[in-house]
Specification:
With 281 residues, the protein is an all-alpha fold. The protein contains 11 helices and 2 strands, in the order H-H-E-E-H-H-H-H-H-H-H-H-H.
């Protein structure tokens, strides 16, 4: 009897904790949707900003955010997945690999503004990329690498050792086993880690503040060496730096950024579910 009571109390506490976490999130999303929905229109999504960003649309900020996210993916995914494959499948457990894993954990906890200053010094000034999409994408890629490497390594290690044993017993090389068997089986976890990193990159303000984002640019970028507007920085600017900015425009911009981030999250969930159903263990 006592055990049942304790179990019910434990379940009640878990449910209460879940409500404490979920309800504020739902309130924030609800307020953003309720106050920003009136501002979202076809013109708002496709027009250039005008009148000091108090009118027009946010197309350059949307395009800039998408370009930065794609650039981050192109730079971070190959390096991050390759590094995870090396740590999981090839590297021995020694002081060198333990130091690498410790460095990855530490890098994941560094504030994003530090990455912004690093990108400013390395890509903007030293390599002379200037404040550009290239510099911003590389800075965001470095920031997301720890997430991609750690989650991908965990996904690879979760694949049972029997898959590797069977591959070797059939005469396959280690790389053939990784490419044909291990990576497909670990793909759901890899997708989750990659998109978690990209979601963080899409919503960051500090790194792009130093490397790519511009205050007001009513045109689309023409090359990777151009500056661009971006939704996180644009939202910061219109909320703090532009007097007389209508509140509905601020909430409309926040709503567009929220939809973009949630769309990536939905894609990650669907891909993870699809590949988990095809997994053989």
């Amino acid at each position: 009897m006592r055990q049942r009571i304790m179990q019910r109390v434990g379940f009640a506490l878990l449910a209460l904790t879940s409500l404490i976490v979920v309800v504020p999130i739902l309130l924030v999303v609800g307020i953003i949707v309720a106050r920003g929905l009136n501002a979202v229109s076809w013109e708002f999504l496709t027009a250039m900003p005008r009148e000091g960003m108090r009118a027009g649309g946010i197309l350059p900020a949307i395009v800039g955010t998408i370009l930065l996210t794609l650039g981050t993916a192109l730079a971070a995914i190959p390096v991050g997945v390759a590094g995870a494959i090396y740590l999981s499948e090839y590297a021995s457990d020694n002081i060198f690999t333990r130091s690498i894993r410790l460095a990855i954990i530490n890098l994941a906890g560094i504030p994003s503004v530090v990455y912004g200053l690093f990108g400013l010094g390395l890509f903007v000034i030293f390599l002379r990329f200037g404040t550009s999409i290239l510099a911003g994408s590389l800075t965001l890629a470095i920031m997301t690498l720890p997430i991609i490497v750690s989650t991908t390594e965990e996904a690879l290690r979760s694949v049972p050792m029997e898959f590797r044993t069977v591959s070797a017993s059939l005469g396959g090389t280690r790389w053939q086993g990784i490419w044909k068997i291990i990576l497909p089986q670990a793909f759901p976890g890899i997708v989750t880690g990659v998109l978690l990193g990209l979601l963080r990159a899409a919503g960051e303000t500090a790194p792009i503040l130093f490397t790519v984002a511009t205050f007001f640019l009513p045109r689309l970028p023409q090359s990777v060496f151009d500056q661009t507007m971006a939704l996180p920085y644009h939202l910061f600017v219109i909320s703090t730096q532009v007097p007389g900015m209508p509140m509905e425009i601020q909430y409309g911009t926040a709503l567009v950024l929220l939809v973009l981030v949630l769309s990536l999250n939905l894609v990650a969930t669907l891909l993870r579910s699809y590949f988990r159903r095809r997994r053989q263990w």
